[in-house]
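Sequence only, no structure available. Ideas?
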Amino acid sequence: MSVLIKKDEYYDDFSKVIEMIETRRNSAYRKVNEELISLYWDVGHFVSEQIESNRLGSKVVDNLAAFIKNKYPTLKGFSRRGIYRMIQFYETYKDDEIVSPLVTQLSWTNNLLILSGTKTKEEREFYIKMAIKNNYSKAELDRQLSSAYYERYMLSNGKALPSTTKTIDEDDYPNTKILDLYSLEFLDLPNEYSEVDLRKALIKNLKKFF
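Reply:
I predicted one. Tokens follow.
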């Protein structure tokens, strides 16, 4: 016969286990994201050097996209457009000793938002640091960029400004701010994936971290 536990009798003690679970899950999400961003950086570096040397011909990007498509038919993100984004990503930050170590802390989606929505090195650094500090989701970062928060901040002489209002019912689960669509595709999960699929993919791709 099972023993009934009074409500909240062990809440404080058992909550520690929940904290352990959440901490390790979030750590796994971050590791997946770090690996993905590092991969895109390395691909951008490789292709940038090939273009500069012209060793593999003028159509190196098109040929690489076709080669990857043939090797991994279901893998997204490595289209011609995607590879050019990786090149832009690498070439934008390769000489920036302050920002380059930080980009792996953002999702690829947020990195792309900052690349396309900013004009200067200072502005990019501002949004990268702010997005990391506040753990911005795609929607939150997009609102800050669209509202020209950086320009308003500079005009206020560096005084803190109120953030734009969040939309109602926005998806704010912690993992969605890190493990975005690109990360899920990187893990090669089925379109309708379950928690079991996600766990298996994380273990498969992150064995060296456990």
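DSSP finds nine helices and no strands in the chain.
Hope that gets you unstuck.
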